[in-house]
């Protein structure tokens, strides 16, 4: 079932597909398969197709203060900050100079490879923490945030700002239950067996499996069995949720999208059995084997595949994988799915039900919402053709394979909450995708799960420590410099007609920034009310997971026929990331990213503009990337472009498609179409940040810039500051997965691709024409 209800919907399911654009990809893009690596686990694991969207067990705020800005008012605010900024940057020594220099590889010519020049030594000396197949500056900040959160969660009591908080008590109990290894080992497989009994057993298990009822083939009912699993938070065959209607974004609407494959990329399925598919089948077979052991029987990981029950289980799992491969063949292609104007399909429930009679959609919807859903109700089905073909596939597939597959989708998300042997088989599986044979420590897994589930509780603890009104004010000021730079640049956009330009300006002015965190989280009454429907035990991590799933269901039901709450946040306060939402027309920067090296008072402002300034410009430019441009200032999907301007835009972006497609990772080319939106945002973001910095300098002095020994100019430091927030390491496996699954280009190309398109970069570093960072052909959209 869809958990995008939790995060507001279509912009989230499209997140995978490009509408809500983040600054950074997954925390560890190399391990996206089923999400069994814990550094990102909750997202991937529970709902592979909708990883950012669904698993975050957080609700949006209902009554927070609105962070909208009146431009005139902001001018006053900027004025009050002048002294603060000037003073700070005059007197503070450059305490970060050493770390900036030590990351650089000064033996490399910046005009040849700027990323290597700025990050070479960082990459050469990086110590990747256990469990990660990709690591970078984002990870370092995230890890620092986690250390702080751990300390805060370990504090005694349940008081926040002097008040008792039930939500805080629940969050702490959730964490402690997760850490309770003794209880988890003692419970063994019993909690999963109990779940399977609720679902009527599992067809793949041998008869007379201890503790699990035998599956009864005669009682199989596709609609009913599918619905039971969606009610429990799985999403076999498709996903369903409530999200803004893209053509009327203040109204929520039921949406159905394709889902239900175990991999995040259909390319990993093949007619010839691949290593990935075989690893996936082996994983399932081991789970089946562990479940079917006699009460007095145990196995160790090394011997598991030689057990007599393993081979038959493997055969059955291979059928499931083959079925998923068949699903992947009818998936709408990812680059099409990501285009909202090409996939906007509004039909009635009856019209939808008629194209997929193999499933009783009326029954399904009535059960999911616990109320009668009218056949005349309008819904959105962006992947409409998928459902047409799914009906045929379901007709052709035997009952037993369907039954095996459905219940596998209920089993998968729970494996993380079982004893260590399950964790070991998960690691063996995920290493095929990640190239990493280690897992993150338990405390980190539990912390991340807690942060995902109670993101506004942990967020409240976090912001109390790190966010000051001054930080909020200063970063808000930066956003306005960026917004002004975009608007100030519009007269130079020669390929756009005046009417379209005017509409673009209106949209840019209308973009709402949200900074830091929603204010309501500091009010324990509101925080407690927000989490009141979630039950947490101090003893069972498995039961807690089930309760979180139920809470999501209640949340979905609560969204029905409610207006969209545009105050909601779709990221937790401690996250090191940022996003643009097209239906909200907003840019959001959680406090997790408002820290060094993105923003740091002890750095020259040139580096801050290169760091957080570029991220802000990146998010703003998403409003005008190849998909963001299809939404108007009110967040509605509407064509506001003159024909000639639209054609010119396409030509401009084609240049970037070609440029990025020419980059290679190993022997694979970057997908210039898949990554286009992010590349437009990177290029626009860097340019806006540079222009904003020049504007800032007209008022302020940035005297702290000369790094010891380097003697770099402020403008050079701007680019160094930009590049170094993207220093990154990935295993080859992880890098290869990223090409398939991550809409962001690899960091090396994010840096070199953007600087090589900027003439001013070559001026600043004296790059001769024709060098790699100063090619004769340059691409520019904004
Ligand atoms: Zn982005």
From TrEMBL:
<dbReference type="InterPro" id="IPR018497">
    <property type="entry name" value="Peptidase_M13_C"/>
</dbReference>
<comment type="similarity">
    <text>Belongs to the peptidase M13 family.</text>
</comment>
<keyword id="KW-0812">Transmembrane</keyword>
<dbReference type="Pfam" id="PF05649">
    <property type="entry name" value="Peptidase_M13_N"/>
</dbReference>
<dbReference type="InterPro" id="IPR024079">
    <property type="entry name" value="MetalloPept_cat_dom_sf"/>
</dbReference>
<feature type="domain" description="Peptidase M13 N-terminal">
    <location>
        <begin position="110"/>
        <end position="518"/>
    </location>
</feature>
<feature type="transmembrane region" description="Helical">
    <location>
        <begin position="64"/>
        <end position="85"/>
    </location>
</feature>
<keyword id="KW-0378">Hydrolase</keyword>
<dbReference type="Pfam" id="PF01431">
    <property type="entry name" value="Peptidase_M13"/>
</dbReference>
<keyword id="KW-0472">Membrane</keyword>
<keyword id="KW-0645">Protease</keyword>
<keyword id="KW-0479">Metal-binding</keyword>
<dbReference type="GO" id="GO:0046872">
    <property type="term" value="F:metal ion binding"/>
</dbReference>
<dbReference type="InterPro" id="IPR042089">
    <property type="entry name" value="Peptidase_M13_dom_2"/>
</dbReference>
<dbReference type="InterPro" id="IPR008753">
    <property type="entry name" value="Peptidase_M13_N"/>
</dbReference>
<keyword id="KW-1133">Transmembrane helix</keyword>
<protein>
    <recommendedName>
        <fullName>Endothelin-converting enzyme 1</fullName>
    </recommendedName>
</protein>
<dbReference type="InterPro" id="IPR000718">
    <property type="entry name" value="Peptidase_M13"/>
</dbReference>
<dbReference type="GO" id="GO:0004222">
    <property type="term" value="F:metalloendopeptidase activity"/>
</dbReference>
<keyword id="KW-0862">Zinc</keyword>
<feature type="domain" description="Peptidase M13 C-terminal">
    <location>
        <begin position="577"/>
        <end position="781"/>
    </location>
</feature>
<keyword id="KW-0482">Metalloprotease</keyword>
<dbReference type="GO" id="GO:0005886">
    <property type="term" value="C:plasma membrane"/>
</dbReference>
<dbReference type="GO" id="GO:0016485">
    <property type="term" value="P:protein processing"/>
</dbReference>
């Amino acid at each position: 079932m869809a958990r995008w209800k939790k995060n507001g919907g279509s912009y989230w399911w499209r997140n995978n597909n490009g509408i809500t654009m983040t600054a950074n990809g997954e925390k560890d893009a190399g391990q996206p398969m089923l999400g069994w690596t814990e550094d990102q686990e909750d997202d991937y694991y529970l709902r592979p197709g909708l990883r950012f969207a669904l698993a975050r067990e957080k609700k949006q705020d209902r009554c927070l203060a609105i962070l909208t800005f009146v431009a005139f008012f902001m001018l006053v605010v900027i004025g009050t900050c002048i002294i603060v900024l000037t003073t700070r940057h005059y007197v503070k020594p450059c305490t970060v100079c050493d770390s900036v220099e030590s990351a650089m590889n000064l033996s490399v010519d910046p005009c040849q490879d700027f990323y290597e020049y700025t990050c070479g030594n960082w990459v050469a000396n990086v110590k990747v923490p256990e469990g990660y197949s990709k690591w970078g500056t984002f990870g370092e900040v995230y890890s620092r945030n986690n250390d702080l959160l751990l300390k805060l969660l370990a504090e005694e009591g349940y008081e926040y700002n002097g008040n008792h908080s039930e939500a805080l008590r629940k969050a702490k109990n959730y964490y402690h239950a997760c850490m309770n290894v003794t209880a988890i080992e003692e419970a063994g497989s019993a909690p999963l067996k109990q779940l399977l009994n609720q679902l009527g057993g599992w067809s793949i298990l041998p008869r007379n499996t201890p503790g699990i009822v035998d599956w009864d083939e005669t009682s199989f009912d596709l609609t009913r069995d599918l619905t039971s699993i969606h009610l429990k938070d799985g999403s076999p065959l498709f996903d369903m949720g409530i999200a803004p209607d893209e053509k009327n974004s203040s109204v929520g609407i039921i949406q159905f999208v394709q889902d239900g494959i175990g991999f995040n990329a259909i390319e990993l399925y093949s007619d010839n059995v691949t290593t990935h598919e075989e690893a996936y089948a082996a994983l399932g077979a081991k789970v089946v084997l562990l479940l079917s052991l006699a009460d007095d029987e145990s196995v160790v990981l090394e011997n598991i595949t030689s057990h007599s029950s393993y081979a038959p289980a493997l055969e059955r799992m291979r059928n499931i994988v083959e079925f998923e491969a068949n699903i992947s063949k009818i998936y709408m292609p990812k680059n099409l799915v990501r285009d909202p104007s090409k996939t906007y399909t509004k039909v009635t429930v009856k019209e939808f039900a008629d194209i997929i009679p193999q499933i009783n959609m009326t029954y399904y919807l009535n059960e999911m919402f616990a109320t009668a859903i009218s056949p005349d109700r309008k819904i959105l089905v962006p992947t409409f053709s998928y459902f047409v073909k799914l009906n045929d596939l379901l007709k052709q597939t035997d009952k037993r394979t369907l039954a095996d597959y459905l219940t596998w989708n209920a089993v998968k998300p729970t494996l993380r909450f079982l004893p260590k042997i399950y964790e070991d088989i998960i690691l063996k599986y995920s290493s095929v995708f990640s190239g990493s044979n280690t897992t993150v420590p338990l405390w980190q897994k539990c912390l991340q799960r807690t942060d995902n589930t109670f993101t506004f509780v942990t967020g409240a603890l976090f912001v109390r420590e790190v966010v000051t009104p001054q930080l909020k004010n200063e970063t808000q000021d930066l956003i306005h410099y960026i917004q002004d730079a975009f608007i100030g640049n519009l007269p130079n956009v020669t390929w756009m007609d005046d009417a379209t330009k005017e509409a673009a300006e209106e949209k840019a002015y209308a973009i709402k920034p949200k900074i830091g965190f929603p204010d309501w989280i500091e009010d324990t009454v509101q925080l407690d009310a927000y989490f009141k429907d979630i039950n947490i035990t101090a003893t069972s991590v498995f039961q807690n997971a089930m309760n979180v799933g139920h809470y999501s269901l209640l949340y979905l039901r609560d969204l029905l026929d409610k207006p969209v709450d545009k105050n909601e946040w779709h990221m937790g306060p401690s996250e090191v990331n940022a996003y643009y939402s097209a239906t909200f027309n907003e840019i959001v920067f959680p406090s997790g990213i408002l820290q060094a090296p993105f923003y740091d008072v002890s750095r020259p402002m040139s580096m801050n503009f290169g760091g957080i300034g570029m991220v802000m410009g990146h998010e703003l430019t998403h409003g005008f990337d190849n998909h963001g441009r299809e939404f108007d200032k009110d967040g509605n999907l509407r064509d506001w472009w003159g024909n000639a301007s639209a054609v010119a835009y396409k030509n401009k972006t084609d240049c970037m498609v070609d440029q990025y497609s020419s980059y290679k990772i190993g022997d694979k080319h970057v997908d210039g179409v898949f990554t286009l939106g992010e590349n437009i945002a990177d290029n626009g973001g860097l340019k806006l940040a540079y222009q904003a910095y020049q504007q800032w300098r007209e008022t302020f002095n940035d005297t702290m810039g000369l790094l010891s020994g380097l003697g770099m100019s402020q403008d050079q430091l701007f680019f160094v500051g930009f590049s170094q927030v993207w220093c990154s390491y990935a295993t080859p496996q992880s890098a290869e997965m990223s090409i398939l699954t991550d809409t962001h280009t690899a960091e090396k190309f994010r840096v070199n691709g953007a600087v090589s398109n900027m003439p001013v970069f070559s001026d600043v570093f004296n790059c001769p024409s024709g060098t790699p960072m100063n090619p004769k052909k340059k691409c520019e959209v904004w």
